[in-house]
Amino acid sequence: MVRRRVPRPRELRPYLRTGPIHLSPVERRLASAATIRDLRTIARRRVPRAVFDYTDGAAETETSLRRSRDAYTRIEFVPHVLRDVSDVDTTTTILGQPSTLPLVFAPTGFTRLMNHEGEPAVARVAARLGIPYALSTLGTTSPEDLAAAAPETNKWFQLYIWNDRDAVRELVRRARAAAYTALVLTVDTPVAGKRLRDVHNGFTIPPTLSARTVVDIAFHPGWWFNLLSTEPLQFAVFSETDGTVAELIDRVFDPTITAADLAWIRDDWDGPIVIKGIQTVQDACLVVDAGADAIVVSNHGGRQLDRAPTPLEQLPSILTAVGDRAEVYVDGGILSGGDVVAAIATGARAALIGRAYLYGLMAGGERGVQRAAEILEAEFLRTMRLLGARSLAELGPERVRVRPNQP
Fold first, then answer.
1. Helical ranges in 101-140 per DSSP H
2. How many Cβ atoms are within 10 Å of 320's Cβ, its own excluded?
3. How much is the pLDDT for 406?
4. Which secondary-structure segment (H or E) carries 358?
5. What confidence tens digit (pLDDT) does each residue in 371-406 have?
6. Distances (CA, A) of 190 to 35, 77, 214
7. Spatial separation of the C-alpha atoms in residues 169 and 157, rounded to whole Å
8. Contact yes or no for 363/46 (Cβ under 8 A)
9. 340/168 Cα distance (integer angstroms)
10. Interior CA angle at 117 toward 98 and 112, to 5°?
11. Which residues contact 109 (CB under 8 A, 6 or more apart)?
12. Alpha helices in 196-322 (DSSP H)
C-alpha cells in the first residue's frame, strides 16, 4: 500500500512555475511553433485561402512537390559518435562571400501578398542570420527600396527574361547600381505552369471582389486591413498586373531565350551569374560552358512542370559533371534544418528555401521569418552535432544514404 502525506509548501513551488508570458498575440502564436510545419499550420489560419494556396501549392497534380519532399524522408543519416562537438562550425563561402550557414533565402514572387511587410522583412532576417537573400523580378519591392530597407544584407537579384529586352537590361543596371552581388537567372519558365489551386480559387492580382472574398474579409480582417491600409499591392517592376500570375507570365515572358542570351547578360553584368532551374546533366553542362558561375538544381518548387525530375535525386550526377567548374546549389522540398544537412551531405554547396520562410512571413511578418530562421538554424546545428560533424567539410556523402522507396 502507498503511504500518502500532505506536501510541504516548498515542495509545491516547482510545480507552480509559469512559462514565458507573451503579451503580444504574434509572439504567442510564434512561440508555439517548434517546426516549419507548425508555422505552416499557423499561416493557414492567418491568411485567406487563396493566398495560402498560392504559396503552398504547386502545378497540376503537385506530384513534383510531393516527390521533392519525399526524397528527403528517404535520406538516412550515418552518425559518428565519440566526437567533440561542443564547437561546431557551420560557416562557408557562397560565391566568394562569407555565410554563417550553407543557406540562401530564395526569390519568391509577390511577397507582400503573404504579409504587408514583404521582401524587406525577409531581407532583414537574412542579414541578421548572415546569409544571402535573392529579390525576385516578380517582387513587390523595387531593387532600390530593398537596398535602402536592408543595407546590410548580401543581396542577389533574380531575373526573368521578358519580351522587352531593353527593359530587362535597364533592370540589370539598376540591380548593379544598388549593389546587388549576384544575378540569378531563372530559366524554367518559358510559360507558366498550371497551378490548379489558383484556378479553383479564382486567384487574381489584385484579389477580385466576390462572395468568397467577402467571407475572407470576415475571417481574416487583419490581413485585409493591412492590405488596404498600406501601399497598393503590385509588382515593383511591371506596370501591368491585372489578371492571374499565369496570364502575366504568358503575356510578358519570352519563351525564345536560349543559352546564347547569356552572352548579352554577361555584357551587362560583371558579377557572378547563377542559373536557376537546372534539372539535367546536359543542361548543367550547357550553362556552365556558357559561363555560369553557379547553378541551382531546381524544379521551381514543383510549380512549373509537374512530374519533373526531383532536385535532390539529380544532384549527384550534376555534381559529377560540373561540380569542379561551378558552385552547385539545390532547392525544393526543404522544410527543416535536417533537410539542409542532407542537401549539403549529398554534395550541394548551399540550399535555397522559399516556402519555409514564407510560412513564417504569413504567420507573423518579420518576426515569423525570424522564427523560421531560428528553427532552421537550431535544427541544422543539432543535426550536425548528432552526426558527429564539426564542420561542413565533415558533411560528406559518407554521412548519408538513400533508403529504397517504401511500399
1. 118-129
2. 12
3. 59
4. helix 355-387
5. 999 999 999 999 999 999 999 999 999 999 998 875
6. 35, 38, 35
7. 13
8. yes
9. 33
10. 100
11. 136, 137, 138, 139, 245
12. 196-201, 211-219, 221-228, 245-252, 261-268, 281-289, 311-322
d(CA 328, CA 331) in angstroms, rounded, equals 10
| 300 part of the active site | yes
Q: How many CA atoms lie within 13 A of 304 on its CB side?
A: 21
| 239 or 111, higher pLDDT | 111
Residue 290 has phi, psi (to 5 degrees) of: -85, -5
Q: Which residues pair with 103 in a beta bridge?
A: 351
| Identity of the residue numbered 307 | R
Annotated catalytic residue: which of 22, 200, 220, 300? 300
Q: How many CB atoms lie within 10 A of CB 313?
A: 15
State the Cα–Cα distance between residues 284 and 304, nearest whole angstrom. Answer: 18
pLDDT of amino acid 407: 44
CA distance 258 to 264: 11
What DSSP assignment string belongs to 304-318? SSTTPPPHHHHHHHH
